[in-house]
Model the fold of this input.
Amino acid sequence: MSVLSLASVSFRRAVLAAGLLAVPGVLCAQNIVSTDPVGAVVLNFQGSSDTLVSLPLHQPVALEATVSGVTGNVVDLDLSGATLTANQYVYQGSGTSTYYAQFITGNREGYYYTVTANDVNGNISLNTASDAGFSANVAIGDSVQIIPYWTLNTLFPDGNGTLPSSSFGASQRQSAVLFPDTTDSGTNLAFNGTYYYYNGTSPGWRQSGVPGTIVNDLIVAPNTAFLVRLNEATNTTTTLVGSVPMSGFATPLSTLAPNTQQDIVLGVAVPSNVTLAQSNLTAVFTPSTSFGAAQRKDQLLVYSNSSSGQNKAFTNTYYYYDGTGGPAGWRLSGDTADIQDNTAVFQPGNGYMIRKTATALPTTVIWTFVPPYLTQ
Done:
């Protein structure tokens, strides 16, 4: 993956806290609409290979406002006298967008929630089912952005960047997009959601096994990683043009069954290189007390997009050593001597896997950090 441009992204977080993005190219109208700095990332896909990718940029912000009240899962936004159309941020059918609300300040900074309803006065209903502490952690004055999700067809319009297929048959597909298993417990889970672009009669994105339904509007959530599989020797590229995230990063890391390790495939929605030290991953990582592979606790596995082939294994494994028998710090499997804290493991557009050590009961922790370009 390569970054083409990231203009005007050296911001101080104090600017965000003030509710204004006072930088070149950023517009604020009545404090409710903003345009975040724009970036572009080239995603490269190798022929006859799998490429694990993620989305370091989001779609343009549809609404930015501050919280004036919260009741349960309903956030009241200060529209400064403006009005909305009822349910304008709710999916309206083929070719329209599904929206999410992402907090850019406050205790829920970086968290996002799908919008389920909105009224004309700025009352926004959110799907907060997975966040029991939502209302207690949202405060008046917190800033929120309403953003359309990426979809299969906004990421790959008319199959651009993939190799379209002229047949529904799996053996004739030129390429496919595969999503990881996020519901089953355990390790070495299969990528079980398979989609491809069909360019025959009634062209559009299809799901494997359901050829009669067009799924162009399937959402691709922030911090998701997915495989692009090319079944032909042809290389492809696509350029992702979007807005630079202007909040801290936040994503849950969960074990799903008692006493069972859990693999979590994810992306890091940050359009800059991030070192292991900058990632703050140690805050939610169970450290290892031994260099031995069998005794390691939480691990970060890195996928090689430069090597060819399908069904590739993750190539590099990082773990945090607690210093029981030597200096504490990040280590790379096979190299116990060198501390890797300053290694820029996280690269824009790449995907990763975290293998959480088993816990007595299913447990969720939230990984958060501030992107380097917001701390300068």
